[in-house]
Amino acid sequence: MRARVRALLVGGAAALALPAAPARAASSAGALAVGAGETYVLSATTRLTSLSLAEGGTLAVPDGYSLTMTVDGVETGSVLTATLATGTTIAPGAYQGDIVLTVAEQHTATFANVTFPIRQALYVGASGVVAARSVLSAVTGGRVTDSGAQSVGIVSTGEAFDGVYVADGGAYTLRRSRIAFTGNGRCDFVGDGAAVVATGPGTTLLLDGVTIANQGVVRSAVVAEDGCSLVVKNSRIRCLNGVLPADYVPAGGANMLVVPWRLGISGNVRATNLLGANTTATYLSSSIESETWGAFSVDSTSDSRATVVNCRIANLGDEGYGTFADGNVVERILGCEIDAGTYATIIGASNATVHYGDSTEEAVAALDAELGLGLSDAELAALPVRGTSIASRGFGVLWHGAGTLRIDGSTVLDTAHTAFLDKAVRATITVDGSQGARITPGNGVVLQVMETDNPGSVNGVYTEPVGDPVRDDGFDVTAVHSADTTAAFTSISVQGDFYNARRSGQNMALTFDRSSVEGVLSASVSRHAVDSIGSAQYTELGHVANTVRPVVNNGVLVTLTGGSTWTVTGTSYLSVLALDADCAVTAPAGGTAAMTVDGETTALTPGQTHTGAITLTVA
Questions:
Q1: Rg (CA), the chain
Q2: 501: exposed, middle or buried (Cβ count in 10 Å: 0-12, 13-18, 19+)
Q3: Which of 393, 396, 421, 418 is nearest to 407 (CA)?
Q4: What 3-state DSSP class applies to 64?
Q5: What are the angstrom distances between the C-alpha of 479 and each of 37, 130, 555?
Q6: Rounded mean pLDDT, 295-304
Q7: Helix (H, G, I), strand (E, B), or coil: what is residue 365?
Q8: Structure confidence at residue 349 as a pLDDT band (50, 70, 90)
Q9: % of the chain beyond a pLDDT of 70
Q10: What is the pTM of this model?
Q11: Residue 157's closest CA among 120, 122, 183?
Q12: CA-CA distance, 152 to 135, in Å (whole number)?
């Protein structure tokens, strides 16, 4: 028998020498062969030099335990027992080398009424590393203690295996380490297959100088959930798509292995995920990259805070989002570079708040105090002040659910398509350009309010509405309602169009203060290039062309204050136009702007407010 599985750490009073499992010494059997139809039950962690497992042969452990194999320090051989199974088995094959079969106490995590057994290299609880739940042979090099690990490596080529799992109010620090996983995970809502997981109230995890490179279906890098506090700094995260099982049928909840196509993107792994109530995740001076789907995800959460400072957030493929904001999360993106495939940000649901801004010393110090980041004076002083720079090969921000966006500082938002895409929900937008913020939509549309084209289910099909909308006499198109979309611009020059194409009651209220806007601001009818959209046409979602039309149930309320000007570039239909005395509505050079209100020619006189059926034209 081995006296110990391995001596963890060298030197130091806190160094650990952890047994493989309580009251279960590791045994050495040399070689083991399990034939077809045979089941070999391992009651203790076992070390081998050779394992032959025939097709139809099984390695098993007692109830309440899990089995993990490492070969030369690499977790390998584990496969899910079926596509949507929640357990793994050792795959048939011939294995040679330093083989350790670890029998560990099983622990589970539950999401959407599905319970997942979780296996990991290091399980950390309130008192430190829990050897009985850990696969210590999967941790190579470096130094491990009850409070942290540094310069270690964790490599997995099996399925549904985790690296470091911190729970039960534990506190842990992982420094200058590398985790590399290849193979599929099982559920990124609980981190089944993730490189690093922090979960539960009072749990804290710090990653500093860590590199994570994963490839596999839902093989996420970092998952923070259920009230934990996570800080990641000076680290590199990259997750690439895996190969879906041939019999997988897209589903939701605990069986969601691909991004829902109704978002207009594809992919099967998101690099990071924040979940649950009162969870805090902060990333500093790091890079977060996904191939598609999503880089920085916040999903199924409430009352949580997600913060990214001076980071690179990127989709390496042609599709995906930079960040996702779900629940009533506060998501702050300061001094970051976002290179997005389809969306810079998706606001998912339940009144999320997103802020693009600068990483000023004052802002970061305030975050440090609010979130308890523990940054030293030297770290704060060394952090460069940067603006947020966003380049999207698709859209800017998608409102899939109601939420708020704030843009300030020197933020630059450059998009190939529409900057702000609102699909029939309340969007609240404030843009302060006093420090140089600017918005440049490649297709010339700043804000598009439209009917949702989400068919609502995996097998659903969106069908373009037919016929003209019917006026709702009970809906006031001249007032701002709680469910309306509002956009306020201060100290900025904006070039581009604003369209409200809703068929049922939702107004678009635009305010410009000390600003200039040049474009069409109008009610409209929007249409896709195709009449129906199913999963095969998912890339058509969100792409519409507008035809300006008089207001029906889609009021457009425009207010100019503080010397603002609107240069009307084409016919625009409004329900309210309010001009301060020092504001003006003009036409491009060589043209003349004219207005009718309820069919009557009306002078565009500053200092007046007009309501009714307003039409502005350019001659």
A1: 28
A2: buried
A3: 396
A4: coil
A5: 74, 60, 8
A6: 96
A7: helix
A8: confident
A9: 95
A10: 0.94
A11: 183
A12: 14
| Tokens found for residue 205 | 């995890």
- The four Cα atoms 166, 172, 178, 184 give a dihedral, to 10 degrees, of 10
Model confidence band, residue 12 (pLDDT cutoffs 50, 70, 90): very low
CA distance 88 to 93: 15
- As given in the structure block, the two tokens for residue 59 are 């390695």
Quick check: helix, strand or coil at residue 397?
Answer: strand
Q: What is the pLDDT of residue 149?
A: 98
What Cα–Cα distance (Å) separates residue 506 from each residue in 98, 355, 473, 496, 535?
66, 24, 13, 21, 28
548: tokens are 């300006």
Strand 74-75 versus strand 65-71 pairing type = antiparallel
The amino acid at residue 145 is: T
**Of all helices (H) and strands (E), which one includes residue 381?**
helix 377-382
Tokens of 55: 């097709």
Mean pLDDT of 515-536: 98
Distances (CA, A) of 243 to 116, 268, 322, 589: 21, 8, 22, 57
Residue 39 belongs to what H/E stretch?
Answer: strand 39-41
> Does residue 223 contact residue 275 with C-beta atoms inside 8 Å?
yes
H or E segment to which residue 343 belongs: strand 343-347
The residues with which 359 forms a beta bridge, in sequence order, are none
Identity at 266, one-letter amino acid code = S
CA atoms within 13 A on the CB side of 588: 9
**Rounded-to-integer distance, Cα 414 and Cα 395, Å:** 9
Look at residue 507 and tell me whether its pLDDT is greater than 80: yes
Residues 228, 206 contacting (CB under 8 angstroms):
no
Mean pLDDT of 371-386: 94
Q: What share of residues in the chain are helix, strand, coil (percent, to 5)?
A: 5, 50, 45
State the amino acid at position 464 in one-letter form: E
Structure tokens at 232: 């990641």
The first and second tokens of residue 520, run together, are 């069409």
